[in-house]
Amino acid sequence: MSTTREIIRTAIGPLFVGASGAGLHRVDFVRPGRDEAWLDSALELDAARARDAAPAGSARATLAEALGQLDAYFRGRPVEFALPLAPRGTAFQRAVWSTLCAIPAGERRSYRQIAGAVERPNGARAVGQAVSRNPLAVVVPCHRVVGSDGSLTGYAGGIERKRWLLARDAEASPGPAR
Predict the structure, then answer these.
(1) Are 69 and 97 within one domain?
(2) Structure confidence by residue, pLDDT tens digits, 70-113
(3) Strands 109-110 and 3-8
(4) pTM, whole model, 2 decimals?
């Protein structure tokens, strides 16, 4: 399955966006340990594993739509991402990522709350692992997950990016941040 990708400049660093006909596979900040070559390889692996899982669409059309929605997001416009997603992960990881997509901009959820939502009430650590492996940063809003006390905990892209994304969400949301 053919893939296409682009690296866009954002206020918080370069963002790799990769898709195939199956959907959007990867949205990740370029950083040490996740350079352009690593991200290209990961995209190819994601697309190869998705080949039989979904009908083939247009990789270019999916990428163009993702780039448009991400551009609007980084310009501060309210965006509800509506894209065909094709993340590679376990059933549990995909359940967690799906739950993250339901967190409205301007709101936050704890790892414990997400664990309850996926019917693993004692699974906050497992949720933390699934959140840390989210291949679709920003689009699947893992930055909206915080510690039980509301503290900003780990974020694969770095705490400063998480802080920026939460502030951006609060500015673009219609209500007060919670």
Answers:
(1) no
(2) 999 999 999 999 999 999 999 999 999 999 999 999 999 999 99
(3) unpaired
(4) 0.88
